[in-house]
Predict the 3D structure of the following.
Amino acid sequence: MAINKQHYEVVKQKIQGKAELCIVSKKRSREDILQYYTMGERIFGENHAQELLTKTDLPEDIRWHFIGHLQRNKVRLIVPYVSMIQSLDSLELAKVIDKECARIGKVMPVLAEFHLALEDTNKTGLSAEDAVSFLQECQKYEHLDVRGIMAMGPHTENTDVIARVFEQGHGLYLDLQKIFGPEKIQILSMGMSDDFPIALEHGSTLVRIGSYLFED
Ligand SMILES: *Cc1c(COP(=O)(O)O)cnc(C)c1O
């Protein structure tokens, strides 16, 4: 058994009443996913289209979240199976998701991914200054429903720096709620294995946790 039940209990207790859990199941076996499924978990995150496609015969009430950089030529393959794309990082991608979802009669919930950690500038994600215009542009796509934002913490062990980035993410989330309405902007996806407690202190409503929940 390669799931970590103790860590799972810690996560469940910390998120209680605050956030939902997306179990990041990339590189994890079907058996491990099914164990968490049996324990009642339904949201699983994958970051590679090809890998996701090998897992789509798992129980159909699993809600797959796509969390990695998505190439436009992979959109058609995955849209039938995913219930949310957390990693919308360009208008070109928005356009393709809209087109492919129109083809199959689906409206895709998406999160706009922002790049807030200032030190590594070559990472993917939108910049905060472009947030309002980006979301406005997305409104013209009828098969795309922007439900909130996703952000990654910085690669550092300095908790003050991590906290500052998550604070910025929360501020952006609140600004977007004011402009587009809290009924539309409902999800702030922040926090992974190493930083989810800090993300929860800064208003995260959805944590994406992988390695901490598994044994190896
Ligand atoms: C892998 C991944 C995670 C989970 O990372 P862990 O450190 O294993 O918890 C979260 N979000 C994204 C986008 C990822 O690619």
Remarks:
- The radius of gyration is 17 Å.
- The chain has one domain: 2-215.
- The mean pLDDT is 96.
